[in-house]
Queue: 2 jobs
Job 1
Amino acid sequence: METCTTPLPEVSSPDEVAGGELEKWPERAFSIPPRITSGSIPGVTPEKFREDDQVWKERLTHYKRIIPLQQGRYRNIMDMNAHLGGFAAALSKYPVWVMNVVPANSDQDTLGVIYERGFIGTYQDWCEAFSTYPRTYDLIHAGGVFSIYQDRCDITHILVEMDRILRPEGTVIFRDTVEILVKIQSIAKEMRWKSQIMDHESGPFNQEKILVAVKTYWAAHKQH
């Protein structure tokens, strides 16, 4: 197991906390994680962290207009490309449980940051099956996931896996380019999902668009 364990950084005195001191909850969710303060994540500065938090506040405000977030409909939520855990942080005031997933193929390893914020998370190669024990999900967020994997495997396989993970009448929010979203929508229709492409929250001139899809509840007709 030693190869799977990340050792804590060395400290120079007994008064220091290995890895950096963490705030108490709920402040911990929004304070700058020690890994970012120490510069351990290339390209992620405290300023970028604050900007990411602000982006997610704006996104959540927009999402509340297009899906019933406040009605208690979503309890188990998955972020398929969690990055710094901003979606989970923005949702922390709601009675929900969020699984943060860092794609194994992403440019930055940010899972440690997610843990330091007090959230749960895991790595996943989305060309492979995801272990759903002990739960399935009511809401899945897939921001930029298909841009990462479109040249690695058939996106149909990822969507079929999402269909398995998602509960009937559950919702998926995709964020990607129009070209990718049109492909996703075509496959989603074959899976009997209802979907709609919408403009980015900043307006129609942003190249990134949003696709909201709902898995319908259906059963095969019995043959007499």
Job 2
Amino acid sequence: MDLTSSQHNYLQNELVRELERQEGEKEDEQIVAEIMRRRFFPAVITHETWEGFHFAGHEIRITEATDCYGAVVWPSALVLCYFLETNSKQYNLVDKNVIEIGAGTGLVSIVASLLGAFVTATDLPELLGNLRHNVLRNTKLKSKHQPCVKELSWGIDLEKNFPRSSCHFDYIMAADVVYHHPFLDELLLTFDHLCKNDTVILWAMKFRLEKENKFVDRFQTLFDLEMISNFPSLNITLYKAMRKDSMKASLPN
């Protein structure tokens, strides 16, 4: 049976979309493989458990703890580090003020520091000891500016510890801060408090549950959100966000 012109165009478009999908999957697999090659493990077992990473021209050693979500390097952090390194011209961090929320082991903060930023790495008080250890061992005498490690419990004492009048961050970094926890409202408040009109948020997020989608919807009531990288094989998306017009944006009830 002969195809009509519209049927032929439809099949041709479907073929193009399928080829693009296959090419996208191939590219995704190649980039993910490159990202994962940045991780290495000690050749000899020692008394200290650590993982190694190659970013920003340095070998980075990270001490982890398996008994806490915040003391493990998750794939989203690797994705964000890789992006910072490979897009250092477009997102030049030299002498920029950067804060990482939910810094965990500190890998993202370390890479941002090695790329020249003034970095404030933040997390819960019980994580600060390991965070400070990792940041110091990997940036001392290597970074242009020595990073600061500071407590930040989302939504608590924000104005006291990070006064709007004196705290200005060029970038807010976040990797895998949305997961199965009950503090999403506080997380949104924290983004809102720290973000000025010209602040850029770089946020790597792994989608696991419907809760993540709902948070993204709420996030977009305050911020313009742009997907800048997507890795389907990891179920991770990298976003860039900036505050909406302050006259139009308000926190949802």
